[in-house]
Design brief:
It contains seven helices and ten strands. Strands 1, 2, 3, 4, 5, 6, 7, 8, 9 and 10 form a ten-stranded mixed β-sheet that branches. α1 crosses α7.
């Protein structure tokens, strides 16, 4: 069985639409979605955004349950403009298997291989992105992968970290991160979002463009995930735990 983790349903909706025989279940107090790609069984977990909720949900998800492979995936923000919205990034510092060595494929989709950095907050400003890029040598950031990687290492589960870029220094968020998402409550407040754009109507076109980028990114990511699952053949070496072993 393959596990796939996303932070939020906004990231997973396109991939979920590709599953057949979908069902939902509660396991250890968390909601799990099950389905199939061809004859391959898939379990999907939404980890939530940030360390606290992610660690809690992933530990319950992996408790007394063994997977052949866990793919941690979703959106990421680029730290430089070498990556563009819609680009796929394979995080080499977190992944413990190699796509080519394991007979896995993303079909003809190009994948950038670089380091991913897990951070504690959404990063908005170009200056902050550039500063983090210089300090870390990472190409992009997310808020969950480090904690998922450590849990996989503890449980002996091979990990593939694949992200799609949604924002860059020159194509940033259309509003401050606090307006777009409340990490404490794990939700977007529509009233807060509406109030902001009513007060800043010139930003509405950038919101529309951002929504279109998100839609395209979801489709790109879903296509890649389906290709990987379909090409997943043979047993995966459980001893290849990389830097987290």
């Amino acid at each position: 069985m393959i596990a796939v983790t996303f932070a939020l349903p906004a990231e997973s909706s396109e991939f979920l639409s590709r599953l057949k025989d979908k069902s939902r279940a509660d396991r250890n107090g968390i909601r799990v979605i099950r389905g199939k790609i061809d004859d391959r069984d898939i379990e999907i977990l939404h980890t939530g955004v940030g360390e606290k909720v992610c660690r809690q949900r992933v530990e319950k998800f992996l408790q007394d349950h063994q997977f052949d492979l866990l793919i941690t995936t979703g959106f990421a923000g680029a730290l430089n403009d070498e990556l563009q919205p819609g680009d796929l990034l394979l995080a080499k510092n977190f992944s413990t298997i190699d796509l080519n060595e394991r007979g896995l494929s993303c079909s003809s989709l190009p994948i950038h291989v670089a380091d991913l950095l897990t951070v504690s907050a959404l990063i908005d400003s170009s200056n902050e992105r550039n500063k983090i890029s210089r300090a870390s040598n990472a190409a992009a950031v997310d808020m969950e992968t480090e904690f998922i990687a450590r849990a996989c290492a503890t449980h002996g589960i091979p990990l593939l970290s694949l992200r799609v870029i949604t924002d860059t220094p020159t194509q940033p968020f259309p509003a401050p991160p606090s307006v777009l998402f409340d990490i404490q409550q794990q939700r977007t407040h529509i009233a807060v979002l509406t109030k902001f754009f009513l007060a800043h109507p010139r930003r509405i076109p950038s919101l529309v463009q951002f929504a279109r980028r998100i839609s395209r990114a979801r489709k790109t990511l879903a296509n890649a995930l389906v290709s990987i699952v379909r090409s997943q053949v043979g047993a995966i070496d459980r001893n290849g735990l990389g830097r987290f072993g």
